[in-house]
Amino acid sequence: MSRLPISVESEKAAIGAVLLEPNQLASVLRFASLEDFCLGSHREILRAIVNLDAGGVPPDLVTVVAELGRTNRLDSVGGVEYVSSLIDGVPDRANPEAYATKVHDLARARALHAAATLACSSIEQGDPIDEVLGGLQQRELELIRANNRGPRAIKDAALDFLNQFYAACDANGPDIKLTTSLADLDSKTGGLQPGALVIVGVRTGGGKSTFLQQMAFAQAKEGRSVYIASLEMTEKLVLARGASMLTGIPTNAILNPRYLTAHKKQQITEAVAQIQTWPVVIDDRGGLHIGQLLANCRAEINRGAECVYVDYLQMIGCREYTKPYDKVTAISGALRDLAKTSNVPVVAACQLSRPGNENDRPTLFDFKESGAIENDASLALAVYRPKDNGVYTGEDEILVLKQRNGTTGLVSVNFRGQSMKFEPRYPEQSD
After folding, report:
1. Cα–chain-centroid distance for residue 299?
2. Which helix H or strand E contains 365, and what residues bound it?
3. Cα(43)–Cα(6) distance, rounded to whole angstroms?
4. What pTM, to 2 d.p., does this model score?
5. Is residue 189 in some structural domain?
6. What is the span of the domain harbouring residue 35?
7. Which residues, listed in sequence order, are joined to residue 424 by a DSSP beta bridge?
8. Chain centre to alpha carbon of residue 335
9. Same domain assignment for residues 233 and 363
10. Does the pLDDT value for residue 400 go beyond 70?
């Protein structure tokens, strides 16, 4: 690109519209910030307008010129003649929102160009590729979040809401697009929601990988495309567990099949043949840096992934931070932004520390001990598996500890180790 994108005419028209109608300032600032204006003279004039407005003085041509003169900036912006010319360029039917939107979009384009240029320079200097990707990904998220064109009249939002409301009323059954694999948990949460960060907190040996895979495979079985970033398990183990879920044959026996009967071998073959038709992408590369992980997730979302699974959060690399608390906070924030900006649910397992009493139920406090996870999550789940004399009792629970748009509570389940899945503890839960 030989020249950076800029529209001097849009900047002039936006400022000129305010000089003609001072009450248009709010409309301009709703869609563009002062820093979005490329020319320094325009930023100075707009700053003078903002200062006058904050002081209760209507920012028209006369007051703005006076303010610029008072701060000794009138000559540097081009004098009275230039400030006056801003009004001359305003069309008869001014549209300040459109001018400000273009100013904002071009500012984002310049920022993206700068980020890409910096990435190229870093590559030429031999910087680690993961760090370059991480920096570029972070800047991309910032630019996506910087899109200010969200506000609109409540009458428009209300109309959309009513359309969605009546569509839901006419629907046949609950509108659960992405199941959690457990009917009772679906009824509490409505399934996995678009744009949500779902954190599944599990203690060591509590079945975190199993629960995530169970959700992912339940969705894939219904035709939903899912992406699994398995930082802990290999794809071989993921497939073995999947076959175990479908057949009930223990995972260990599938991985060591020498003594399996011909019938069981046939069952496993048929299960794997079924799994291979599902829209699942497995990435079992370990030690991924958060920047590379985000890039992989975005690539799969662009290819159609409807849900992203990360197993598990503490295994993600983040070299920018040395303290575990700061590292986890940065990673959970990045995953939250990924979910929000892509409008795709991101489900991440989180290892919880061992309690003083092994039968203590997990609480939100256990999440707070691990960075800002509890604050970032839209939905916080925890797997609870009590023991008696060191043996699991079977009275397991999935705890809904936080739900931004719903209630908390628990779902009674039982973890079936042989088939590697959580099942309803009571028959009526599966009706």
Report:
1. 14
2. helix 364-368
3. 14
4. 0.66
5. yes
6. 1-150
7. 413
8. 5
9. yes
10. yes
